[in-house]
Amino acid sequence: xxxxxxxxxxxxxxxxxxxxxxxxxxxxxxxxxxxxxxxxxxxxxxxxxxxxxxxxxxxxxxxxxxxxxxxxxxxxxxxxxxxxxxxxxxxxxxxxxxxxxxxxxxxxxxxxxxxxxxxxxxxxxxxxxxxxxxxxxxxxxxxxxxxxxxxxxxxxxxxxxxxxxxxxxxx
Length: 171
Description:
171 residues; alpha+beta; seven-stranded mixed beta sheet; 1 helix
């Protein structure tokens, strides 16, 4: 009898198992790399959006002159410190009462009483606003976290209004 050349069934099964393990390992590495890339991209986009929103908030609050009404010189914190109502020193360019508010999952700016709120940033998980005054030195602080930023990452801006409002009002 002649000896036949070829692979035995056990050798073929062992080869398939080894190739399957190599394929599973390669898929896991590629999948992890793709997830890391998308997470980094989302974090970068969230950081960029937050930076733009913080710059706009600083621009707005720097000119805060007080709350609604000509005789009222107080900035109003409302809704458990999730909104700030104020007027600005820029009465020609930015007339009326303005409201910076956290609603749902967005921080919005309403340019005048009764006007449509404009979204500064969406995808916000939580937000807190505060106002403190010691004598004539007042500061406004806005802190928020975003849903697609790394866990625990907080974005904060502290602004000293040019008008130095001394009397905060909390509603």
